[in-house]
Amino acid sequence: MEIELLEKENTPENVIEHSIAVCKKAMKLAANFDDADKDLIRKGALLHDIGRSRTHGITHAIEGVGIARKYGYGEDVLNIIERHIGAGITEKEAEKLGLPVKSYLPETLEEKIVAHADNLISGSEEVDIDFVIAKWKRRIEDSQDNIERLIELDNELIKAFEE
């Protein structure tokens, strides 16, 4: 159903492919957590970039919430969409970016899994944390706080399960 919704909203094909890859990565991450709501993760991962049917700017998450709300998705899915960018955005960063001022930090396990799965997919290819850190250093002004949150998320969701 979510893929049909992406198509109905004229989401670009490369964004749909990316969302499918993020979903696969998110499900791999979720497999480590017995208490993770896998259906919620699947829906959130597939819809996380639906706002890119309207814009490719930072506001795509907010646009996505509006679209998903129109189709009756609950707050749990809407929060995943809104909080998936990077390792989250603080109130201060939101203000600086011109977003409505509030915290966009992922809070629930499901939000964190989708956000981090999105970090670890470039296009539709899986990448490692070093790739993401290098990309953020190139693209994000004053990226140190963001990188620290990224590493924290990686430690929580991946490193804890490596042997």
Summarize, please.
Helices cover 60% and strands 2% of the residues. The protein has 163 residues and is mostly helical.
Describe the structure.
- The termini are far apart.
- The model has no long low-confidence stretch (mean pLDDT 94).
- The radius of gyration is 15 Å and the shape is globular.
- It has helices at 2-8, 13-30, 38-47, 60-70, 75-82, 91-97, 109-119, 129-139, 144-157, and strands spanning 121-122, 125-126.
- The protein has a two-stranded antiparallel ribbon.
- Helix 2 (13-30) packs antiparallel against helix 3 (38-47), helix 3 packs across helix 5 (75-82) and helix 3 crosses helix 7 (109-119).
- The chain has a single domain, classed as Orthogonal Bundle (Hypothetical protein af1432), CATH 1.10.3210.10.
- The protein has 163 residues and is an all-alpha fold.
- It has 9 helices and 2 strands; from the N terminus they run αααααααββαα.
- Strand 1 and strand 2 (125-126) form a beta hairpin.
- The longest helix is centred in the first third of the chain and has 18 residues, at 13-30.
